[in-house]
Amino acid sequence: MNNDFFYRPIWQQYGISFCFVMTIFFFNYLFFLNDITQEVNQQKLLLQTNNQEINRLQTTIERYRQNHNTMLRLISEKDLAKAINKNHLILNSFKYYKANSIQNWDIELKGKFLNFLYFIKWMKDNDYYIDIKNLMINREINDLTISFTIVFDIGKA
């Protein structure tokens, strides 16, 4: 090996060594900067994707709120009868009484509990206002007897 590096003056050896080390640091620094810029670009893309997803979900939530913030309606006797028939329930008794601005309907239904749940779901899905009080469920041989009171505050409506 014919190497004249060690035969040069010491200041040239230090200079060449310093330049070599600085060149290595410079290339590592460029590699590091490139890696950081790629990571920043990936994070920007991820942030944009997340922002788009957030905006999409916010519009979905806003649409849902607008659909469910509609004015609730009071149910009529005709709609109640339709709901009872639709959900395969039998009306055993119906009592209507009014005190001041409050109307009460005492209702007794006969049928399966699952049908009663479908009845309540139907009322909710059709935006009917229902305030159920005094819910009683009695078990009979094949069916349940479900008694409850629907309260309407006419002063608020």
User: What is the percent of helical residues?
Assistant: 40-55%
Q: Cα-atom Rg, whole angstroms? A: 39 Å
SSE-based structural type: alpha+beta
Major sheet description: 4 strands, antiparallel
Describe the structure.
With 157 residues, the chain is an alpha+beta fold. It is 52% helix and 27% strand. It is built from 3 helices and 6 strands, in the order αβαββαβββ. The chain has helices at residues 10-68, 77-86, 113-125; strands spanning 73-74, 90-99, 102-111, 128-129, 132-139, 144-153. The strands form 2 sheets. Strands 2-3-6-5 form a 4-stranded antiparallel beta sheet. The longest helix is centred in the first third of the chain and has 59 residues, at 10-68.
